[in-house]
Amino acid sequence: MTHRFDPAESMARARHEFGEHGGVNLSIEASTTFTVMAADEMPKIFRGERGPFSMQARNATGGCYLYGRNFNPTVYTFGRMLAAMEGTEAGYATSSGLGAIASVLMQLCSTGDHIVSSQTIYGGTFALLKEFFPKKAGIHTRFVDITDLTGVAEALDETGAKVLYAETVANPTLVVADIGALAEIAHARGATLVVDNTFTPMIVSPAQLGADVVIHSVTKYISGASDVIAGAVCASESFIYSMMDLHTGALMLLGPTMDPKIAHELTLRMPHLGLRVAEHSRRTQAIAERLREKGATVSYPGLDDHPQHELLKSMANPGYGLGGLLTLDMETIERANRLMEILQNKHSFGFMAVSLGYFDTLMSCSGSSTSSELTEEEQRAAGISPGLVRMSIGLTGSLDQRWSQLWDAYQEVNGKV
Ligand SMILES: *Cc1c(COP(=O)(O)O)cnc(C)c1O
Description:
five-stranded mixed β-sheet; 12 strands; alpha/beta; single chain
């Protein structure tokens, strides 16, 4: 029997970084600039002969770190934790998820190049690909239905795209990408598969299924407290180092640098990420099942009537469930808004706010908020109905308490109370 990749085991195998004085937690390297012990070291760093990626420095004896935008050891340690979670050779953290996405795509594409992307992606990424890149950088994107593998292959063939881009579970309609199949299709055509795994940390490990680059908006589940904007890139050592290159690296030159104090704080949240994700999933699964039993129009990849339920199950690492997001279609925007207002203002069930992965429940009406970058037609094509309420289910309170609040509000909207 082959042993499946387990992100928790992989994270436990990674080297533990102790603090300067033997503290159990690592120290914060709060410097933006770093000394060299001999003057002739400096030109060597600029020539790439010495530096954070040389063996000396990795053994922490080189001291050739140069400058904080290029490399910071605390940020690097957080990146190593993320790499361990994804099972990639390397990882590096950024100041935002979108900073990571834009930098990765700029690293992989030049003017005139093409990207093939899922049409159901985060609104900000969609705007970047649809408007910003073609106008500002001459990088063009063909949007496809990511579940139509033949269509994906055709789009790659027709455009000669450098990059195939998808989200593991897509915002907001919870479409699941078949990472293994997409990797095969991309690699057969020399394209790089880039996967945004923001919705499913620990649950799915895209690099183990063939993805070349895995991106996170750390702002969401990894932070878990809606207090920090942050992102990350996990990939091969050579790709991560190329992004940090002093003269040609997008992380170095575009500058989406994470602050080491933030990185330090996030390292303390990684050990319980798996526990949190499992609990978010457990509650979301239960609430989705109860909503379905009551006849509500609920979509959740953990339900067996979700079109990609089996696919996500086959990709998921055991023990973390199938995610903390569900959508509830209230048909009209008025009914959606009413439901959210009752839930927030009467029951304190959760908050009307964008984003996800918070310890409390967050609710938003996707069509008029996080997917408002899409035109009405694009929204229809992506399966976003005007009354679609996206819920990122929290882990506070008790499950029964939260369910009765939700059911109460649902009935009130339907005039049954
Ligand atoms: C939030 C989000 C992003 C953007 O990340 P920021 O940290 O807000 O820059 C990208 N992709 C997905 C799927 C997201 O949910």
